[in-house]
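EI: anyone free to look at a 219-residue chain?
SC: sure, send it
EI:
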Amino acid sequence: MTSINIYVELLPSLLNGAKVTVQVLVLSMIFTYVIAFLAGLGKLSKFKMIRGICTFYIEIFRGTSLLVQLFWIYFVLPFFGIELSALAAGVIAMSLCYGAYASEIVRGAILSIPKGQTEASIALNMTPFQRMRNIILPQAVKIMLPGFGNISIELVKGTSLVSLITLGDLTYQALTLRNTNIGQTTEIFTSLLIIYFVIALPLIIVARWLEHRTSVGGV
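SC: here you go
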C-alpha cells in the first residue's frame, strides 16, 4: 500500500475526531472569554469579597496543571455526586484554566487606560457602568485582542489533553489508530500534526493581523 493510500484510509477516522476537537475548541473559546471578563472585572471590583474570590480562582487555575484539572473534574467530582460527560468536563476544565489566564489580559488592558479619561467621564457625570461601557471597555478591548488571539491558539493545543478523559477527539482517534496499526505510526502522527495546524491556522492568521493592527494603531 502506498503512502498516499494510507493517508486516504486514515482521513475519515481522523476527521471524525477533528469534529469533536473543533466542538470542544469553539465551546471552550466562548466560555473562556465570558469567564475572562467576569474574573478580570471582578478582580478590579471595589468590593473586597469579590476581589478575593476572583483572585483565589485565578491563582488556583493558573497555578495548577490543566491535565490535573481535567482529571479532577472528570474523575473526582463523581465522588461528590457530580457526574459530567467527557465533553462537558473537557470544556469546563479548559474554560476555567484559560479563562484564568485571559482574565489577567482583561485586567491589564483596563488598567492601561489613562486615568485622565476616567476623571473626565466623572466630570461629565457618568455612572460607573456608563464609564466602563462607553469609555474604558471600547479602548481596552482593542488592547486585549492580540492576547485573546494567542489564548485561542493555546486552546487549540490544549484540546489534545481531552483525549485522556476518553473523549473521542482528534488525538484520541490517532492513538486508537496507532494501537491497531503500529506500522503506520509515521503516517498517523504526520496526519495529526497537519490537521491540528489546519485547525489552528485561521486563529494564527487572525492573531497576527490583530497584532499588526494594534501595533500601528489601526484598530
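EI: The mean pLDDT is 90.
SC: 👍
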